[in-house]
Structure formats: C-alpha cells, structure tokens
Design a protein that fits this description.
The chain is of the alpha/beta class. The chain has helices at residues 38-42, 49-56, 70-85, 109-117, 133-146, 170-173, 223-227, 237-259, 276-286, 297-300, 307-317, and strands spanning 21-30, 34-37, 60-63, 94-98, 123-127, 152-160, 178-188, 194-202, 210-211, 234-235, 268-271, 326-333, 337-344. It binds oxa(dethia)-CoA (UT7). The site of oxa(dethia)-CoA has 20 residues, from helix 2, helix 6 and helix 8.
C-alpha cells in the first residue's frame, strides 16, 4: 500500500505499432427515485401537460433528493458498469466524468468517484462540455487507449440539473432531469471493432444562449446573485433549437465519412434527448428511419451529459444492440459544443 501522494514508479507502456481499438465492455445507469410528472409541474408554474408533451415529448423526469449529489448516483452507475465488465476498481487506469453539475467546483467529481469506488490506481478528471460531456469524455478516453497509455478507462456522464434549475422559470424548469450513466472501456487488439470514429466540435460564439451566470470567477456568489437567481441555468431555447438540428446532422455526416460508412450501416442512432422535435427534425433532415432512433426522453427529460449514456445502457439492456451492430451517438449542448461517436459492438 503506497502512502497518499505517492505511486510506485512504472515503466512507460511501449508505444503500440498500431493503435489499440477501444471496446465498451460494460455500461450502467442510475437515476434518482423521485419522479416529477408534467401534472406536478402544472401545480408549480403556468404550464400544461399538453404544452410539454407537444413541444418537447417529455412526460416525466427524475429529481434528486436534497443532499443527494452527482457522485451519489454516478457511483451506482459505475458499479453496475464494472460488474457487467467484470472489472475491479483496482484495475481502472483513468476515470473521466462529463458533467456541469458535479458535487462541487473542486475537487473533480472524477476524484470523488475514484475515492468512493476504491480505484486507487486511476488518474481522474472532469470534462465540461455541456450536454456533449459524455461524448467528449468518451473521445478523450479513446485517445488514451489507442496510444497504449491506458488499458481500462471508466467514462461517466452525470448531471443534477435540478440543482441549477430556476423553478419559477417555466421556459426551462419543465425540461431538465437528473441521472447518471457509465461505460467501462478496454483496449482490444482487434482492428475495426469498438469505437470506429469520434467527432468533436465547438462554437464559443453561441455560449450566451445556454449558461449559468454566477458561481464562477466572473460573478462569485453574493446575496444579490442568489436573489437574482443567477446560479441557475439560462437558455435561449429557440436559438439552441436551430443550432441543435444543424449540429447533430453535421456530426452524423462527419462520423459517416470518418468511419467510411453509409446511413444504412447504422443499426441504431442514439441522439441527445433534449427535445423530441429536435430529434425528429434531425432525422427528417438526414432521411434516417425513425424506427432506428432510440428515444427515452418521455421518461427522463433532458439529463445533459447523462442523456446519451443512459440511452445507450437502456438500448443494450433492451436487446436492441447485437454483436456486430454499428451504433451512432450524437449530442450538442452548452458551449456551444457538439459531436458524436460510432461504435461497432
Ligand atoms: O440540451 C441542450 C440544450 N437545450 C435544448 O436543446 C433546448 C432547445 N430548445 C427547445 O427545446 C425549445 O425551444 C423549447 C422546448 C425550450 C421551447 O419550445 P418552443 O417551441 O421553441 O417555444 P417558444 O420558446 O417559442 O415559446 C412558445 C410559447 C411562448 O409563448 P408566446 O410568447 O407564444 O405567448 C412561451 O412563453 O410557449 C410559451 N412557453 C410555455 N408555455 C407553457 C414557454 N415555456 C412554456 C411552458 N408551458 N413550460
């Protein structure tokens, strides 16, 4: 047992002659117990079940309990993913967490998870890329594996948006939910398996459309920032809507090109679950068949970084993904950021 702050020196892993493939060997998801329905929201703000369903496709979402933090549900998602992968925490080389609502600004939620899981050997850090957080984290993990630096990486998407929601603002409070998902990635010598392509993009000029004004170095917490609800998410929904459709279609095109695939090769498309109308507009634009698009937005609302990994876990557990199937995941979010991955299972 090494003392805190020390590690036994290890020889550097040899640079591989050709990149290792990155395969997903386990996934898990966890959502808080409490369900908040559209009927509940009708009692809180001037809204209706009909408006929410027609404009977003959402019916209910999960809301964390007071005192429940991101790592509390993320650790359960990780344990499920590790159990399926038959990987022990001590074998994890790296933990990457996509989140904008971690337990606290620092330490990172990845470090908190490292401690909770007992993954003593793992390096750990968070990635802030809005709702594209899981895609960014997955893509970074792939680089560490491809180069032979890591053999086993735990990638997490977790969000507690309910904690930064203005519950008096009907234009945002009906949209968000809490949740966590995790994937265990391993190096594999077989080429053309696992992650086939990744695509990341950003456009900081759109940052003003989705942000939380206070709590950082720009506007540290004061009585005024709290009174003015500046520690909550602000969104220009219409602006985001238009960019979202273009961005997800853009990601699909880049990924197909990189992976040298056609749309017909994609068995299942898993888009970020932000709005059913955004998903439908994107698939219409691409002429992609709706029966091959995974949707669970009605159950969870928009869980940001957790959305696509919860969806991937549900799709796998529902038997929708068989060995050899090619799955594409695309997302967009605050930043603005967008991107995707193509995976052969
Ligand atoms: O995860 C990435 C980030 N987020 C997103 O991807 C969200 C992207 N945007 C959207 O999903 C949609 O823009 C929203 C769901 C946020 C809004 O839908 P919309 O069809 O763009 O509605 P709108 O903002 O144009 O508002 C239409 C009307 C307005 O009333 P008036 O001005 O026409 O009288 C709003 O005040 O709907 C009103 N409205 C509501 N009415 C009932 C806005 N929110 C609500 C509500 N209930 N909750």
């Amino acid at each position: 047992m090494t003392k805190p702050g020390t590690r036994e020196p290890q020889p550097a892993p040899p640079w591989p002659a050709q990149p290792f493939s990155t395969v997903i060997v386990g996934t898990g998801a966890q959502v808080p117990e409490r369900i908040l329905t559209n009927a509940d929201l009708e009692k809180m703000v001037d809204t209706s079940d009909q408006w929410i369903v027609e404009r977003t496709g959402m019916k209910e979402r999960r809301i964390s309990a007071p005192g429940e933090a991101a790592s509390d549900i993320a650790v359960k998602a990780c344990e499920k993913a590790l159990a399926e992968a038959r990987v022990k925490p001590a074998d994890i080389d790296l933990i990457i967490v996509g989140t904008v609502t971690g337990d606290m600004l620092f330490p990172s939620t990845a470090c908190i998870l490292q401690q909770k899981l007992g993954a003593q050997r793992a390096a750990a850090f968070d990635v802030s890329a809005g709702c594209t957080g899981f895609i960014y984290a997955l893509s970074i993990a792939r680089q560490f594996i491809a180069t032979g630096v890591c053999r086993t990486v735990l990638v997490v998407g977790v969000e507690m948006l309910s904690k930064i929601t203005d519950w008096t603002d009907r234009s945002t409070c009906v949209l968000f939910g809490d949740g966590a998902g995790a994937a265990v990635l391993k190096a594999d010598a077989q080429p053309a398996t696992g992650i086939l392509a990744t695509y990341l993009a950003a456009d900081g000029t759109g940052g003003e459309h989705l942000y939380m004004p206070a709590g950082g170095s720009r506007l540290p917490a004061t009585v005024e920032t709290v009174q003015q609800h500046q520690h909550t998410c602000k969104m220009n929904g219409n602006a985001i809507f238009k960019v979202a459709v273009r961005a997800m279609a853009d990601a699909v095109k880049h990924l197909l090109r990189q992976a040298d695939l056609k749309l017909e090769d994609i068995k299942l498309l898993i888009p970020h679950q932000a709005n059913l109308r955004i998903i439908e507009a994107t698939t219409r634009l691409l002429k992609f068949p709706s029966e091959r698009v995974f949707i669970n937005i009605h159950k969870y609302g928009n869980t940001s970084s957790a959305s696509t990994i919860i969806a991937l876990d549900e799709a796998r557990k529902a038997g929708l993904i068989r060995p050899g199937d090619v799955v594409m995941i695309v997302a967009f979010g605050a930043g603005l950021t967008w991107g995707g991955v193509v995976i052969r299972f």
